[in-house]
Design brief:
The protein is built from no helices and 11 strands. By secondary structure, it is an all-beta fold. The chain is globular.
């Protein structure tokens, strides 16, 4: 069992930055692939980024490549999403998830990110 709690969302102007954090509790955090997803009003939840286990390779959706960076601190049981050059279309609720064998089994409650133009 893994519990996830996101933080760091807020209101920012276009071009600004935010860093989201996802604190995990439970066993074996370091052996999960961790990901960030987002859901805008009226839209389906979409993949943003993930950091894979094992190996630590990362994947991003095309629209955030070069602007967002996912990282993890296994000693702190935390995964981060650094978001730079934010755009209004990045506005959404951002969710952290934990996956094994390609299936996301655990989710946080989400944190709101609002980017004003």
């Amino acid at each position: 069992q893994v519990q996830l709690v996101e933080s760091g969302g807020g209101l920012v102007q276009a071009g600004g930055s935010l860093r989201l954090s996802c604190a995990a509790s439970g066993r074996s955090f370091s052996t999960y692939t961790m990901g960030w997803f987002r859901q805008a009003p009226g839209k389906e939840r979409e993949f943003v980024a993930q950091i894979n286990w094992p190996g630590g390779s990362t994947n991003y959706r095309d629209s955030v490549k070069g602007r967002f960076n996912i990282s993890r601190d296994n000693a702190e049981n935390t995964v981060y999403l650094q978001m730079n050059s934010l755009k209004p279309e990045d506005t959404a609720v951002y969710y952290c998830g934990a996956a094994r064998r390609g299936i996301y089994d655990y989710w946080g409650q989400g944190t709101q990110v609002t980017v004003s133009s």
